[in-house]
Amino acid sequence: MAAGAASVASFNGLFSIPALAEETKRRGKKCILLWLCGAPSQFDTWDPKPGTATGGPFGAIATNLPGIQISSLMPRCATLMDKLAVIRSMSTKPNEHFQGIDALTRGDQPRPPFTRPILGSVVAQQLGQLDSPVPQFVLLDPCPEGNEFKAFKAGNWAGWLGAEYGPVRAGGDYGIPNIQQLDTISDGDHADREALRKFFSKKYENDYRSTAAASHNAAFDRVQGLMSCAPLFDLDSLPEADRERYGRGAFAQHALQARHLIENGSTFVMVANGMPWDNHVYQHEMHQMLVPELDNVMFQLVNDLDQRGMLDDTLVIAMGEFGRTPWLNDARGRDHYPTAWSLAMAGAGIRGGVVHGATDALGVEVIEGKVDNRNLFATIFQTLGIDPHEEYELPGLPTFHRVEDAAEPIREVLA
Amino acid sequence: MRLCSFILVLLGCVPRGIAGDPTTQINSQLSAAWQERKVQPAERCDDRTFVRRVYLDLAGRIPTREESRTFLADPRDDRRQTLVERLLGSEDHAQHFADLFDVILMGRADEGTYQRRARHGWRAFLETAFRENRPWDEVARQILIARPSDKEHDGAVWFLYEREDNYQAIAEAVAPAFFGIRIECAQCHDHMMADEIEQAHYWGLVAFFNRGKNEDTPNGPRVAESAVGGFSEFANLEGSSTPNFLTFLDAGTVAEERPAKEVKRSDEDRLYVSAEVPGDPREPIFSRRQKFVTQVLDGHPLLARAMVNRVWAILMARGIVHPHDEIDSMHPPSHPDLLDWLSDDFAASGFDVRRLVRSIVLSDAYQLSARRPTQATPPDSFAWYLERPLTAEQLARSIQLVLRGSFQNDASVVEDLRQQILEVLPDTVEVPIGDALFFSNHANLDAFIRASDGDDQLIAGVLACETADERAERLIETAFGRSPTESETSAITAYLDQRSERPEEAVAQIVWSLITSAEFRFNH
Amino acid sequence: MNEVKLQKVDDHRLPTAILGGSLAPDARSVVAACMDGIYTVDLDSGDYDQRYAHDSYASSAHWLADDVILSGGYDGRLEWFDLKNGKSLRQNQLHAFWSWETAIDPKAKHFASVTGQYLAGGYKYEPQGEREPSICVGSVETGEVFHRLPHIPSVQAVAFSPDGQFVAAGNLMGEVRVFEVSSGKLAATVKTPDFTSWGIIKSHCYLGGIFAMRFTPAGDELLLAGMGEMRDPMAGNGKQLWQKWKWDQGEPRLVDQIHDGEHGEGLMEALAIHPSGDFFAMGGRLRGGDWNVALFALDDGRRLTTLKTGYRVTTMHFTPDGSRLIVLGTQGQPKPEADGMIAPFGRAERYVLSGADG
């Protein structure tokens, strides 16, 4: 404990026994989470309030849904609204980043000592392709810092599922260390040496009925597979035209890489870039840049998946841990606001062209279709074909459910 | 269980002096619990297993072939006690425990930080504490007051100093280090599950240290303390606010004059006395750090209990309370009477760490086989020796011993491994793929193996063997401390035969496969 | 000058934040560019009138002769408005993005407006090249634009030289381009890295840059204001920073900057030069320290006096006679009350200067 169980930094993927067919890999549902950490302003994205005291400076534009406007910073998504489901009535509890990130990536607030696995871990465990050498849960985040998100990243992501369902982290300087074979050893010797290692190691595993040795040997079993997919993590190997089209910022580049990983067998890819959305100061100056990047990423990603016939099976979610205050603080910023905020989803059985819920004229309260993190997670699980309310009986713990309190999915956005 | 020993005493079966012996207590209380839970403990381990195990646990490394052979050839009945006593007095023991407590108290760090810890005496402070078996309560006091009386204790400031006036980080480190509890989640609210850990304790503990200020003096780094300031209020989730009184756990609130809000008390000379050591920062007459030590730490039952549980966890792979640093109402001990008894004994013995370590490694439970008796046997019964991964330093020394017959504590392989393998007391064993990739492809480790090509080192020694059997024997005995099985001998022989044109490489690859196998990676 | 002091004499509220504005010729009123439009404010009584609105926040406003207002807004538009009859005289959609700021030359002959949206242009969020010319210079009288000049977005501050021959524009990256007004030719480029942050804590992107700019009375130096570098750009805790650059001869060079020990933390976004030419005012937000408006000697840069206004200052002007300092700005926007009304949060104050010789 004292050294810090850096479950993200010391990445753990989910791969083993090469066996199953290529076909299952294509059929399974997948998910890309555009993790807008720090919390974007709903006013400057999905729930504009043009011409009001809280609307901010950016204004609103019409979309391809009659009567529906979004922020003028999102002209591309305005043409894509028939494929998106926008939820304007998120209303959650935690008001600080760490707690908000916890609730919106795990689906619920903590109930120690039980550690609820993060969404990516659940999806990787439930839908992951065990035959694939490709990591099933990948976190792409080039930012080594990130305040509360940094602290969160150092925590236990996979929870009770176990570290093997934690993410492989890549992005920026986070290449996967030691993934390249040294040129001091031939392919043949590398493999033979490993076979000999396994022979010695299995003897101990069997003699001692050792689960620790089993974990040790399983880790080595995955080495060859992971080394074989090293190119997937090389941004420079992606087509230049695609890189240009997604945009040059780190977030956009990694969103493209997420598509690439999903196409090649990953099940859940979370794309983040530190905690850029927490604009207590310079709100306008930051959002003028961040929102257009998000607008383009969402547009390119959803269209690409659609064109490749993958949108039916791939869920794309764009959200942060809460929203921003309707009122501006004296530093030209907006502060944390979990009371009424927005997010967007597309694909994998989410109904496009839906705007669920509404806030009042100034965006202070939800006045229609109020939902929370539990409803959201029930929706995500439902659309991915995972039982939202499955019961867990774990030794020494009270009964838990994948989503507590039998919270209902948001029916309006489910096809 | 206490009743049992009482009856035994009455019956005259056990002399009084031995009932008070901690090893006897451990044995009787654990075995009583086995009977009660109908647990069949594993067999006693053989000497070959014991010698590897106890070298790793006490000296932080595997034994050399010669050390094993000497022990195995010892005909005396008390050879295990003798070995334990010798290891406890060894420099390797001081180094190993300094390694462990550096991670436990300070956390892993980059190499630059390790160098600073050494340069400013922290490392030496820890080594001395274990080399001289200094009383743990005294060590704790020196660390928390952080006013070294002489050059030799310079390192005592480092626990606070390295946290660079980050008072929350200090509080969050003090709680597990000396009280065996974690308080992080009490920052914003009372602990959700453990009622006794209140938000007021979090901010109270912060307040005991929030007048500190790092200062670089001619005597080296020091943590000065102000006589004023450090008053604030903390808000709970509902938004109501409370002053940060000097309070922690059940120790009551330390009385302190609290200025009215808005009043800023001026920082006057009369509030200080000059330091005893010339050149050190002046000391406030009302020192919060001093108050913390005298009114909270001294005599606090958790001080002994936390150390007992931690040392137990180091030697038995899990605490009597598990996780070892969450001794709160959420985490009941598996053997409450034993933990009470050992804690009382530890305090009564003058916080004698070596006595505690000795009593645990000489217990029956420590000397059980590492084979789990049945799948149903619970780990918190301590009915078998729970295997544990070697720490980075244990592994680095042992790899050096295998390859070169000797080791250096500052070898590059130590640095590489401690940046890779962070944990020293993991709650559970999950081997990350990153570790497997490290062993498979790390350039420095590869280079270290290749450079172990001296005439008196393993690779040359193996190649000098005349028969295939001897080669296998030499390899397996050096790495695992046992003889090879037939199938191991043939696997090694086949591997060498296939590469007869490049024998050095072949042996190096076999050594790699041995030191990366589970039998080497774990202590068992 | 050693004993110069500021004494508050008026304290007025406007419904919404004031982002820019200027004095009326009689110096008794101001025109305020607010979130919800253009207001005139009588500084004696505090009475105000909303005259007209932009489609987004108004960001700057100038009170021209003959009671005509020229304003710019985040709708990218410039508007000429006649106060006498309450009619809009001209609307000129200059930019696709915001007019961050406008400036009028001392003879009120030329205007300049700067624009530019910061968009991700590289992996580390280097700003993308401009999508439209960042600087427009035109005629105050006819509205005709005769120069569209290049820069790297976002261009946040603009100023004319006292003789009206040069216009300078400063951007996010701390680059100031000085152009000759008559020809539109680039006359000088000042680059200072000290106002810009690249975040390593929360995010990777650029933030900050130059938020206010003035030529010194002699015209050969430029005063720049903003906030010093931060590790976490969203902390808003960079030092309160001004720099003075000699720009007109050879390679531009840093002449002076805020002195050590005289700054707190916070974004500085307003500059005003006293008519005497002896000192200038800088103002903005107080994040750490004990002032958010201060006067500094123009010659040696030392700080003369400070104010703590309790709100963010966006614009300042000295009256032409040098006797008063007008301070415009905003508090945080209050939470709407139950009926949806929001208490006024724009601030306009007037201070009397004492002890200023000259």
TrEMBL record, chain C:
Any single Pfam family the record assigns to this protein: WD40
Entry keyword annotation includes Transcription: no
Keywords (A to Z) from UniProt: Repeat, WD repeat
SMART domains per the UniProt record, alphabetical: WD40 (SM00320)
InterPro entries associated with the record: Quino_amine_DH_bsu, WD40/YVTN_repeat-like_dom_sf, WD40_rpt, WD_repeat_multifunction
PROSITE patterns (UniProt xref): WD_REPEATS_2 (PS50082)
WD repeat residue intervals: 148-189
Keyword hit for Repeat: yes
Domain of life per record: Bacteria
Name under which the protein is recorded: Uncharacterized protein
Species this chain originates from: Roseiconus nitratireducens
Taxonomy of the source species: Bacteria, Pseudomonadati, Planctomycetota, Planctomycetia, Pirellulales
